[in-house]
Specification:
Blueprint lengths: L5 H32 L6 H34 L6 H6 L4 H28 L8 H23 L8 H40 L11 H27 L3 H7 L1 H26 L6 E3 L5 E3 L8 H11 L11 E3 L5 E3 L17
Antiparallel strand pairs: 1-2, 3-4
Helix pairs in contact: 1-2, 1-8, 1-9, 2-4, 2-9, 4-5, 4-6, 4-9, 5-6, 6-7, 7-8, 7-9, 7-10, 9-10
């Protein structure tokens, strides 16, 4: 593979980040509109996720502003001395260091939110998020060591020998952590969907009530960031300057993944409300059970809310044990219980 000249890589990195920031800009305001319209900021966890989304957008905005400033400094104002290549490689300059710090903070916030979402989906199971949390700590330590090396040693780019161990640690830990948490969330939602189908029977649980489309949205969206980190690992291993181009894209990509999940699920819910006809409608009672009624060919916004919650949308949620209530008040728990032991006696309606 031919090497990319550094002066070209630096320009392409700013251009590529600007392109992704434009996409992020649009998705961010779409997600804010969806959240405000559906009033999904009532609970404390939902407020936390919304606040984090806003902070991530502000960080991405500051990052692209500094990148454009660096482009002007390196290729216009200081083009003759020291020159663009030397300017971008000087990590003692405040703007170069600030760009790396903002990128690190952005990834920390994004990774922390994914772990927290996984924690809530698994009913606050600390064992499930233990390994991802350790990987996040390793990534933070690696970033802090990189920042310290920037200040204490003379480095001429990301491929400098003092940085190699820590950069490899950061990429490896980030990739493993995101892959694990996404897999855990997807499996939990898929398991919820499968167990519900087992109780309700084939053909009685489909369309908008199914959680499988939500699993697909989560996996497809998270795959963008995971694949980007994987390519970064490969480029860094072979010492290719395309690393600089893709590294600059990390900051907007993290925000794109989170806002894309919110927007895609909102679009899916709207479409499902218009087109889906279910043999029965599901309602979530205050007691935490799922009631099955005999309303024919009627889709429920609450059942879509269940699907949205199980997908990890902007609100945080728990997948708790639920049950179905048939015409004769027969309760059949769906998760974590033995159905025979928890069935109540049937009683006819009066």
């Amino acid at each position: 593979m031919g090497q990319l000249p550094l002066e070209v890589a630096n320009v392409l990195s700013v251009w590529f980040e600007t392109l992704l920031y434009g996409i992020y800009f649009s998705l961010f305001f779409e997600s804010v509109y969806v959240i405000m319209k559906k009033k999904r900021t009532k609970t404390l966890p939902a407020k936390l996720f919304f606040a984090a989304t806003v902070v991530m957008f502000l960080l991405a905005t500051v990052h692209i502003a500094i990148s454009l400033y660096r482009l002007l400094r390196g290729y216009v104002w200081l083009a003759s001395d020291p020159g663009p290549v030397a300017y971008f490689a000087d990590y003692h300059r405040w703007d170069n260091v600030a760009n790396e710090v903002i990128s690190g903070i952005q990834t920390w916030i994004g990774d922390s939110l994914v772990i927290y979402r996984c924690f809530i989906v698994w009913s606050r199971n600390y064992y499930v998020v233990a390994v991802p949390s350790v990987l996040l700590v390793l990534s933070v330590i690696g970033n802090c060591m990189v920042f310290q090396i920037f200040n204490s040693k003379d480095v001429d780019g990301l491929f400098s020998v003092p940085l190699q161990t820590w950069v490899n640690l950061i990429y490896s830990a980030t990739f493993a952590q995101n892959t694990l948490t996404t897999g855990f969330i997807a499996y939990r939602i898929w398991r919820q969907d499968w167990e519900t189908r087992q109780v309700l029977g084939p053909g009685s649980y489909r369309g908008a009530a199914s959680l499988l489309p939500s699993v697909r949205v989560i996996i497809e969206s998270a795959m963008i960031y995971a694949l980007e980190v994987l390519v970064l690992i490969i480029l860094y291993a072979i010492g290719h300057n395309g690393e600089y181009v893709l590294q600059a894209a990390v900051t907007p990509t993290v925000g794109i993944v989170f806002t894309m999940i919110t927007v895609r699920l909102a679009l899916r819910s709207s479409e499902a409300l218009k087109t889906t006809h279910l043999p029965s409608a599901f309602r979530v009672a205050p007691t935490g059970r799922m009631h099955l009624t005999t309303t024919i060919n009627q889709s429920s916004d609450q059942e879509l809310e269940e699907s949205r919650k199980a997908s990890g949308d902007d609100q945080v949620f728990e997948l708790k044990s639920v049950g179905t209530q048939h015409e004769h008040e027969e309760y059949v728990p769906l998760i974590g219980t033995n159905t025979r032991q928890h069935q109540r006696p049937k009683r006819n309606k009066t």
